[in-house]
């Protein structure tokens, strides 16, 4: 690896935008799972 100096300090980056994006992604995943499970339950009951 190259030896070079950097002004970067680990843990100093602003990650608010990434946190908001991840929270939105998790919300859509959660609703997707709920819809899929509800659909599977409906199909299982309709078949009975």
TrEMBL record:
<dbReference type="Pfam" id="PF07835">
    <property type="entry name" value="COX4_pro_2"/>
</dbReference>
<keyword id="KW-0472">Membrane</keyword>
<feature type="transmembrane region" description="Helical">
    <location>
        <begin position="28"/>
        <end position="46"/>
    </location>
</feature>
<protein>
    <submittedName>
        <fullName>Aa3-type cytochrome c oxidase subunit IV</fullName>
    </submittedName>
</protein>
<keyword id="KW-0812">Transmembrane</keyword>
<dbReference type="InterPro" id="IPR012422">
    <property type="entry name" value="Cyt_c_oxidase_su4_bac-aa3"/>
</dbReference>
<dbReference type="InterPro" id="IPR036596">
    <property type="entry name" value="Cyt-C_aa3_sf"/>
</dbReference>
<feature type="domain" description="Cytochrome c oxidase subunit IV bacterial aa3 type">
    <location>
        <begin position="11"/>
        <end position="46"/>
    </location>
</feature>
<keyword id="KW-1133">Transmembrane helix</keyword>
């Amino acid at each position: 690896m190259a030896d070079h100096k950097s002004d970067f300090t680990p843990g100093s980056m602003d990650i608010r935008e990434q946190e908001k994006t991840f929270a939105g992604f998790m919300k859509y995943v959660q609703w997707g799972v709920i819809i899929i499970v509800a659909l599977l339950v409906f199909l299982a009951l309709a078949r009975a």
